[in-house]
Amino acid sequence: MPWITIILSMAAAMSLTLAGIHFRFWVHRRESLESLLFTVAALAAVATALIEAWLMHAVNPAEYSERFRWLHLPVGIIVIALAWLIPVYLKAGRAWLAGLITAVRGLLVAINFSNPGNATFREISGLRPVTFLGETLAAPIGVDSPWRILAHLSVLLLVAHALDAGLAARRLNTRPRPLLLSAVIAYAAMQSAVFSSLMAKGILPGPFVGLAFTVIVVALSYELSDDMIRSDQLARDLEKSKERMLLAASAADLFLWEWDIARDEVWVVGGGEQDTDSPATVPLTLDRFLESIHPDDRIRMRDSLSRALSGESELRVQYRQLDEGGNERWLSVRGTVIRDARDRPLLLRGASRDITGRKQAELELEARRREL
User: Fold this and answer.
1) Looking at the predicted structure, is the pLDDT value of residue 68 above 50?
2) Burial 214-249 (b: 16+ CB within 10 A, else e)
3) CATH number belonging to domain 253-371
């Protein structure tokens, strides 16, 4: 029974399944950078496991060397993706360490494809048959490449990066189990380095980094799935809250609105009988919305929006709105900017109240005072 091939195939299938789940989640929530990075790492883990199975069935040294050359590409992608996923997910750590790991691993991949042999072996002179878990596989006999030190350096940096970010996240309390995730990444990275050394000595038929990184993928998926569950629960809670809010808004004769800043869509739900002119199912653009404002009030509205988006203040403004017949009404607006984890504005949500009657009364009172 070819157990190694079966195990590596199962690891690839598991990583591919998890990649599909988290990619779909990222498609629906584009601000979830950790889901995108996880998808990249999981897909690279799939390629790593499959190339390793292909590698260990090589029939001559040249074939083994060429297949090993291609193994460096997905492994490099995994290491770089993990280097950036750690600070993004844990909301802690040092970005310069992630950048340094990216540079070291990128240099290693470039050297790997621009020199004879590969970045692990300068030359493979022969293959030795090794029986491992009931399957006969090819183990390399060769001379180490001097550039192999870069692979070890990137692994050590990744371990240091994971542990440093985990300790920082624990201190800042940004995640519930930061040290567990950091420990899994550090352990799997060190395990891959040990297996790689045993492979270089001809003891193992391959580095088995695909299995090590599958462990990381499963651990990361478990952690990220907590966020997905919380997100789903939050969505349900928000839906219930939205229904209650709409009921209250209708009773208070309020207009609820939301501006999706990235898509430039303004959704409006009216209150009372006036909601027929502002259906929630029809989005407006910001420019269209501003066109409906009295020309004398547009600059003030733009300034208020700018201050709200920059974080200087909440949106609070009174303005006149013109309908298709040219009639004007006064509206009082209050809104709050919703930001992502990197403090970028995502949404502007608020409520508007028709204060035309109050404004007319104020103008009439002011006119009478002037007459007196």
Assistant:
1) yes
2) bbbbbbbbebbeebbeeeeeeeeeeeeeeeeebeeb
3) 3.30.450.20
